[in-house]
Amino acid sequence: MADYTQMWQDLGLDLKSHDALLSVLGKAYADIFLAQKNRPEGMKYFDFVMSEVHGLRIKEIVDAKAQGRVVVGSYCVFVPEELVLAVDGVAVGLCAGAEFGFEAAETLLPRNTCSLIKSMFGFKLGRVCPYLESCDVVVGENTCDGKKKAYEIFGPLVRDLYIMDMPQTKSEMGKKLLRDEYKKFIAKLESASGKKITPASLKKGIEIVNAKRKAMIRLNALRAADPAPISGLDALLISQVFFHDDPARFTDSVNKICDELEVRVKNHAGVAPKGTTRVVISGCPMAVPNWKVPLLIETSNAVIVGEESCVGERSTRWLTEIKGNTVDEMLDAIVDRYFNVDCAVFTPNPSRVGHVKEMAKKLHANGVIHYSLQFCQPYIMESAPVEKELEKSKIPTLRLETDYSGEDAGQLKTRIEAFVERIKK
Amino acid sequence: MRFAGIDIGSRTIKLAVLEDGRLVLSRKAEGSHNPLGTARELMEGVAFDRLVATGYGRHLLKGHLDCPVISEISAFVRGSRFFSSDCRCVLDIGGQDTKAISLDESGNLCKFEMNDRCAAGTGRFLEVMATALGFTLEEFAEAALSARKAEKINSMCTVFAESEVISLISQGAQRGEVALGIHTSIVSRSAGLLKRVAPSGKIFFAGGVALNPCVRILLEKETGRPVFVPPDPQIVGAVGAALSAAE
């Protein structure tokens, strides 16, 4: 890796903490990802991306800024990347997947706040996330109560926190609210970037994001094969990289790995023997470097074949229809697309469990592991009804509730192993 | 052929050996800072053809003896059927966790629930509470059984419950009544787990806490279901592991 010290310093990072974080991350990556067997060749690209995750990609973003492009960070799949691209901006999904700086976070937040929110604060207070520090605008969205209230405290800590309100019901009123908010967001983006969204620029933005999602849909469909052509850990990693890589290059790399996986499927080759117990994960998002539960599952004689999560199918399964000649008409199509997203903040939210069932069937899963972050009320609340509904449909389900710490790894391992023993053929 | 099962739990390590489908040997030792060493001592001089490990230390043993492992839950499923051939529901309260398990008619694992990550409502919880009240474990159960009413214990966290107990005592509450309150709280929590997993029928009660007569009696009362405790409730997991070695 090149020397990025100057760049990190210019971004205001705490170099000592940042070095420590990178070295932990690098070691975890080697132990968890590089140690896997039979990995597809195409993962080399993602290994490279991860080795340069705070290096080359940040340099690209800093260079883009120097060329006058606006950098917009977000913590949620409801923030449309299409609109950011339409002002020639760079969209960055900010990750919050490490137990870092929790003590500092707890000086501002209650202890019983979910790990994701604490991590978001920990990264900021510890000054260790170059993505966050590169952002001209950070979008905070009013999804769950935890995030909504946390953004009130987060606001003064960042350069420009823009709050986007969110509907809570799938009603006409809810949809109108989403449209109004997207419209307002367009105005915000135009003023932050000094560029106007035109029908041509928006169409281009939609096409870029559609291509990226299409590649992910292709990848996820290939995982229906037995033997599974790619591990759940590697597939999750690709879903994580989805949020911060250059979109066109990312799309090419995913398609390239899909070409390789197609050959694997044809040759009945995979990462685990045919007949290995197959699991779908459903629930809270797993942001980099939150690999704890997938690692426990895949070292317990099972392979993960799908993620029903915001870092997974919930962010990729719908495309935006390309229609209309005006920005307003295209915005309608964008709203139609995003309004499908079945986040647990919506009430009621029946389509989510419907989709989990569909995934279990399509991907030939033997069972579903429902993953909730401790103190994430929406997903914990949904977990029991989801379990009941899945079990009723003869899909064995295990509910897990955990956080980013490693202290419960033993208990989780016992539950996961027992579940795998229960569902194996 | 002799099949052995070892259950390396958080508080005790258990060994069982089966021959021709009969239990021919069982041994127990208190857990230590060196579970591997204790396990080795326990197995000293014991002859067997195959060994399967279960319990929290299973992977540790696997790393040293290269024996197969099964989860405690599967071990209890198998072991319970050894002692009770029609078992459909197991409650295991061990040193650091509580499990409720349901079995189908043929003895396959259906569903299970475990307590949260902490020691709330487990054997360790009872030990700490007994110490706080100045009882041995035996005295603790006896005092609870002879109390006429129970002080309500609200906290299930071992640390918070200890402070609650101390403050009750300092307010002049009867030791026995506090003891009964603690037993009642552990039972209602276990009953809640059972209700989610296997809401009716006989309860097969295993683990060290099944040795406590007060918990047993309260469990019957609270659930209105018959409770069966095998002759040695602590070795069920080890027997299950031995049965798995025979498969």
Entry keywords:
heterodimer, A: 425 residues, alpha/beta, Rossmann fold, 2 domains, four-stranded parallel beta sheet, 19 helices, 8 strands, 10% strand, globular, B: 247 residues, Nucleotidyltransferase, domain 5, five-stranded mixed beta sheet, 44% helix
How would you describe what is shown here?
The complex is a heterodimer of chains A (425) and B (247). With 425 residues, chain A is of the alpha/beta class. Chain A has 19 helices and eight strands. Chain A folds into two domains: 5-196, Rossmann fold, CATH 3.40.50; 204-318 and 344-423, Rossmann fold (3-Layer(aba) Sandwich). In chain A, 53% of the residues lie in helices and 10% in strands. The model of chain A has no long low-confidence stretch (mean pLDDT 97). Chain B has 247 residues and is of the alpha/beta class. Helix content of chain B is 44%, strand content 21%. In chain B, strand 1 (2-8) and strand 2 (12-19) form a beta hairpin. Chain A binds chain B through residues 391, 401-402, 407-408, 410-411, 413-415, 417-418, 421-422, and chain B through 56, 59, 69-74, 97, 108-112, 114, 116-117.
Tally of strands of chain A = 8
- What is the strand arrangement across the widest sheet of chain A? 2-1-3-4
Q: What is the SS-derived class of chain B?
A: alpha/beta
- Along the chain, the helix and strand elements of chain A come as HHHHEHEHHHEHEHHHHEHEHHHEHEH
Number of domains of chain B: 2
Strand content of chain B: 15-25%
- Average predicted confidence as pLDDT of chain B: 93
Concise structural overview:
The complex is a heterodimer of chains A (425) and B (247). With 425 residues, chain A is an alpha/beta fold. Chain A has helices at residues 5-10, 15-34, 43-51, 56-66, 81-86, 102-105, 115-126, 130-134, 145-154, 172-193, 199-222, 232-241, 247-266, 292-298, 313-316, 327-338, 350-362, 377-392, 409-423, and strands at residues 71-74, 90-93, 137-141, 161-164, 277-283, 302-308, 367-373, 397-402.
